[in-house]
Amino acid sequence: MRKTTAIILSLSLAAAVGMAQAGGDAAAGKAKAGTCAGCHGANGISANPIWPNLAGQKDAYLVKQLKAFKSGTRKDPMMSPMAKPLSAADMANLAAYFSSLK
Q1: pTM beyond 0.85, yes or no
Q2: Residue 66, domain extent
């Protein structure tokens, strides 16, 4: 049982390190985030309660939502067209930027 637990912990740690290294470039995300500021605020804090704050959200969550908007599994008349042209790198970069904000 101890050996199995050790293996599971090792694999979990390796996966976590891989995910951390797979993050995007926050500086590139900041450069691309100008379009987002109209609704989500210049610093990722929306002035309108109908639009979510992006600052401080986990990057994996942000990427998941952008992918869902792009694929159509999540629909929104404003966000779906905004996500369509984003590449996987764009999404990772935007997520890295917004997750880095307080």
Answers
A1: no
A2: 24-100
